[in-house]
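REQUEST ID: PR-0412
SUBMITTED BY: lab tech R.K.
PRIORITY: routine
TASK: structure prediction, single protein chain
INPUT:
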Amino acid sequence: MAEWFTPTAVNYFGRASKATIIGNLEEIKGAVVPSWNGMKKTELASLAEREAAKTRWIPAMLRQSQPAPEQLT
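STATUS: complete
OUTPUT:
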């Protein structure tokens, strides 16, 4: 899905809550930066857009899930 969708401040991060954006950034970066809590949502969305573009990260809801073992047969 990452080939067809790139999360941006307009199409994803700007529509998510600040807590969701921080959670996404934690997933992308692997750590939480304390200054994120003090940022405005628009600044946070722009930061998340830049960081996601570097890694081709996409939201969990768009990732392909692994089939359950009983579905493999």
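NOTES: Helices lie at 18-29, 41-55.
REVIEWED BY: pending
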